[in-house]
Design goal:
Keywords: DNA-directed RNA polymerase, Nucleotidyltransferase, Transcription, Transferase
EC number: 2.7.7.6
Helix content: 40-55%
GO cellular component, one term: RNA polymerase IV complex
GO molecular function: DNA binding; DNA-directed RNA polymerase activity
Oligomer: single chain
Organism: Physcomitrium patens (Spreading-leaved earth moss)
Strand order of the largest sheet: 6-7-1-8
Shape: flat
């Protein structure tokens, strides 16, 4: 139960949290998030002379989060026993192979030809009254197999090389797909690359203490709510520093990226996926490309977004402009 002082403090904080109708909270959130990012630089840590795991921070890390990049992901795995890098690092045949030589001397071309056809095959195709076949008892039910030495040709070597490459190279030797390097410290494993689905399936991994900084990886394994929590956590981690700002701006950005039931990046591809107008897309990155597409298609779109209003110089539907004023002339 709240006492009088706590109740008054709650009322004051609640009144401060109220937002006026029509206030553009997105612009305020972008300003609050954009200001501290200009004061942060790329940082990485190295352990014992090893560059096994590199952690992005600052603007590069923020770009990878907003673009939903899966390449710069890392994970922290808690294990219940001693592990080695071979338990996690994904290796295939090309990773351990020094060279591949095609020996044409050992190549043989096997030529199989059917000299005779049995009566039942002919009858099934043409009928018994259509054709008559007389088979010599000497060659009945036989298949001639001729073995020829392969001719020395560069084309044959390239064909064999491509055939072996397509079959042998994808074979997995060890590890989990997506994990490139690891840094092991007792029972804690830091990885470059993330595969939460494959990691949590290992019997020696503590699933409660295993985390990933990739929202896309968490989405594929645990769902959209868990992915949203990862976005909030990683954005807060990137923006840490001397600058203070309200966490509601980060929550608003995370909600905007996940309100479709999936993670939509904050870039030109995300704008296309959300169905923004061509003028809005042109204001982001590909100005000439988007305007040329709109002209070629003869697109006619209503002016609705803030970007469209700014470009053509009309009143935006925010703030006091969200309501229409009817002037009485009488």
């Amino acid at each position: 139960k709240l006492n009088e002082n706590e109740r008054q403090a709650f009322i004051v904080r609640h009144s401060r949290a109220q937002v006026c109708a029509g206030e553009d909270v997105g612009v305020i959130a972008s300003q609050s998030i954009g200001q501290p990012t200009t004061q942060i630089a790329l940082s990485s840590f190295h352990s014992a002379g090893s560059t096994a795991v590199e952690v992005l921070e600052g603007i590069p890390r923020l770009e990878s989060i907003l673009n939903c990049s899966f390449k710069q992901s890392t994970s922290t795995i808690r294990t219940t026993r001693y592990t080695s890098p071979s338990d996690f690092v994904y290796l295939t045949v090309p990773d351990v192979m020094s060279s591949m030589i095609v020996d044409s001397k050992k190549m043989k071309a096997y030529k199989i030809s059917l000299k005779l056809i049995r009566d039942r095959i002919v009858e099934s195709m043409y009928g018994s009254n259509t054709i008559r076949v007389l088979i010599s008892p000497e060659f009945e039910h036989t298949i001639d197999i001729a073995v020829q030495c392969a001719a020395k040709s560069r084309d044959i070597e390239m064909y064999v090389y491509g055939l072996v490459k397509s079959i042998i190279f994808p074979i997995q030797i060890c590890g989990i797909k997506g994990i490139e390097h690891v840094l092991i410290n007792n029972n804690e494993v830091k990885t470059k690359g993330s595969n939460l689905m494959g990691t949590l399936g290992l019997d020696f991994v503590d699933t409660k203490l295993t985390i990933s900084d990739s929202a896309v990886d968490v989405l594929n394994c645990l769902g959209i709510e868990a992915a949203r929590n990862v976005l909030v956590r990683e954005l807060s981690k990137v923006l840490k520093g001397d600058v203070r700002f309200d966490d509601k701006h980060i929550n608003l950005l995370a909600d905007f990226m996940t309100n479709k039931g999936k993670i939509v990046p904050v870039n030109i591809s995300g704008m296309v996926e959300r169905g923004h107008s061509y003028l809005t897309r042109a204001s982001n990155e590909r100005t000439i490309v988007e305007l040329a597409r709109a002209v070629c298609k003869g697109v006619a779109e209503p002016v609705q977004s803030i970007f469209d209003s700014i470009i053509i110089g009309s009143r935006s539907k925010v703030g006091t402009g969200i309501v229409d004023i009817l002037n009485c002339t009488q």
